[in-house]
Amino acid sequence: MSEQGGAPPIDTAKPHSARMYDYYLGGKTHYEADVQAAEAVVAKLPEIVTAARANRDFMVRVTRTLAAEYGVRQFLDIGSGIPTEPNLHQVAQSVAPEARVVYTDNDPIVLQYAQALLHSTSEGRTAYLRADVTRPDSVLEAAELHHTLDLERPVAVSVNALIHFVPDEQHPERILRTLLDRLAPGSFLALSHGIADVPEQDGVDRIKEVVDIYKRNGTVLVPRSRAQVAGFFDGLELLDPGITQVHLWRPDSDPLGGLPEGTLTLYAGVARKP
């Protein structure tokens, strides 16, 4: 497990998006500042709680699908966040015990809990490294990555609920392309992203207020349109059902993912590198 450069101290007085997300999920790894900010968000956009939980379910279905139906045995989870069971490696290794997973995040609190991400099967392997997605080379060149994954073989890259924290001026599409360019053909990109183009003006206004709450607390949040999210998959082969919402991506039983029609969650897609 790498602490590249040493982990900075945790600022408990300032909300952090990963700890706010943990609050939405009903977790316990957060502080009072996170609770206050998260509750302010929920007051404006209560759908965010459903969206966060649907996003976790999306991760489970995608991982299971890629392992069981596409034979993927290597996973790179960028922006893994605070461990929440089932973690990605638990899903992958329940299908293929030999699966290997690398987790990355740049939040120091995740480093404290990363040991929970390292309980691999004896046949497989997991690793954790502290790295920043806006510096993709820090991920691609990390020793832990190369000790765990063989980049000459397909890798599934997971960037769930992450890229909406990367502003346009940091070129999120270039970041994703840098990551995918270094991976073998047959690799996959799984991505979920905050929605900007909701149909009702009330929803648009509430999303803007949520963006402002994050901004006041030091975090850039950039919801994007369906077309913008689709652009992240340029040059890749989208799996059915294409760009949709997380709860509608291959739901297990109910075609609406068990949620009422019209529920707002996150955009999502999964695509293969040809």
Outline the structure in words.
This protein is of the alpha/beta class and 274 residues long. 37% of the residues lie in helices and 14% in strands. It is built from ten helices and eight strands. The chain has helices at 17-24, 32-44, 47-69, 88-95, 108-113, 136-140, 143-148, 172-181, 201-216, 226-231, and strands at 74-78, 100-105, 125-130, 156-160, 188-193, 237-238, 244-245, 267-272. Strands 1, 2, 3, 4, 5, 6, 7 and 8 form an eight-stranded mixed beta sheet that branches. Helix 8 links the parallel strand 4 (156-160) and strand 5 (188-193). The protein starts with 16 loop residues before the first helix and ends with a strand. Residues 1-5 have low confidence and may be disordered.
